[in-house]
Amino acid sequence: MRKQIAAANWKMNLTKEAGKKLTEDILSAGIDLNDHRQVVFGVPFPYLSTISEKIDGRKNYFVAAQNCHFQKAGAYTGEVSAEILKSIPVTYVIIGHSERREYFNENHQMLSEKVNRCLENGLHPIFCCGEPLSIREAGEQNSHVEIQLRESLFHLSKEQLTGFVIAYEPIWAIGTGKTATSAQAQEMHAHIRNVIAANYGEEVAATVSILYGGSVKANNAMEIFSQPDVDGGLVGGASLVAGEFISIIKSLKK
Ligand code: PGA
């Protein structure tokens, strides 16, 4: 089975102490992950090391950065490169979250470069895509997401896309309490997999983990994750509450 992932996105929340406590509480649930299930903590840069040390030795628990710069190195005050992240070490990097696209003007070209920097450094991107409400209402969500994939990912080789992680996050469902129905999620996830299959073949498409994001909570995770093309979730608000996130981890396909 391809990787099933519960990925926390803490965004710009929690102090270092609060982050440590939350991680300890989640780990204390003692959830043993099997070979295909993973838990990822997407934490603010300053405590990537701390959280990485906390989870050290736990099988299939990893940390993610929430961003990296598209340049390799140099005079970019305040920025963090993929090479720096690799030295922490970090396993995953969230790339192209809609908040970064919207508030920091990240475009397709920048995101494709960020993906490249990650891969050059052996880091795994969690590549985010998803449509705003206006596009959904116009019924154009499939082509919108297809363009996001094509422009930022489809320069990759078959080998690079094998086992890749994508997060579909409809913007209208992020932080709004309004979740896509499991049918809407499945429909888009199947579309994403079909687009990958059309460009890279069925075999590669079958290895790509597609996470759903947007108001995933303890009480809807099981239903959403049970869809055949949904391979877990990227979770914001509910990942800040130990009990919620523990239930979400337990909702991954076994
Ligand atoms: P949410 O955020 O779970 O709070 O909706 C998800 C995300 O932005 O990754």
- Give the low-pLDDT segments: none
Task: Give helix % range.
Answer: 40-55%
Mean pLDDT over the full residue set: 97
Radius of gyration: 17 Å
Structural class: alpha/beta
Morphology: globular
Please characterize this protein's 3D structure.
- This protein is of the alpha/beta class.
- It is 42% helix and 16% strand.
- It has helices spanning 16-27, 48-55, 82-86, 98-103, 108-120, 133-137, 141-153, 158-161, 182-200, 202-205, 218-225, 242-250; strands at residues 4-9, 37-42, 61-65, 92-95, 124-129, 165-168, 209-213, 232-235.
- An eight-stranded parallel beta barrel has the order 1-2-3-4-5-6-7-8, surrounded by six helices.
- Strand 3, helix 3 (82-86) and strand 4 (92-95) form a beta-alpha-beta unit.
- Helix 5 (108-120) crosses helix 7.
- It is globular and about 45 Å long.
- The structure holds 2-phosphoglycolic acid.
- Residues 9, 169, 174-175, 213-216, 234-238 line the site of 2-phosphoglycolic acid.
Topology:
Blueprint: E1 4-9, H1 16-27, E2 37-42, H2 48-55, E3 61-65, H3 82-86, E4 92-95, H4 98-103, H5 108-120, E5 124-129, H6 133-137, H7 141-153, H8 158-161, E6 165-168, H9 182-200, H10 202-205, E7 209-213, H11 218-225, E8 232-235, H12 242-250
Parallel strand pairs: 1-2, 1-8, 2-3, 3-4, 4-5, 5-6, 6-7, 7-8
Helix pairs in contact: 1-2, 1-12, 5-7, 7-9, 11-12
Bound molecules: 2-phosphoglycolic acid.
2-phosphoglycolic acid is lined by residues 9, 169, 174-175, 213-216, 234-238.
What's the gist of this structure?
With 254 residues, the protein is α/β, with parallel strands linked by helices. It has twelve helices and eight strands. Bound molecules: 2-phosphoglycolic acid.
